[in-house]
Amino acid sequence: MLDFIYYPVSWILWVWHKVFSFVLAPDSGWAWALSVVFLVFTLRAILYKPFVKQVRTTRQMQELQPQIKALQKKYAKDRQRQALEMQKLQKEHGFNPLMGCLPVLAQVPVFLGLFHVLRSFNRTGHGIGQLGLSPELNAQLSNYAFSPEDVQSFLRARIFGAPLASHITAPLSELQAFADFGGVPSKLSIALVAVPLMIIAGIATHFNARASVARQSPEAAANPQAALMNKLALYVFPLGVLVGGPFLMIGILLYWVANNIWTYGQQHLVFGRMAKEEEARKQAKLEQRAQNAPKPGAKPVNTKKKPAAAAESVASEDAESGTASTNGTPSSNGTAPKSAKAGARKSGGQKRNPNRGRPNQKRRR
Question: The whole model's pTM is what?
Answer without folding.
Answer: 0.69
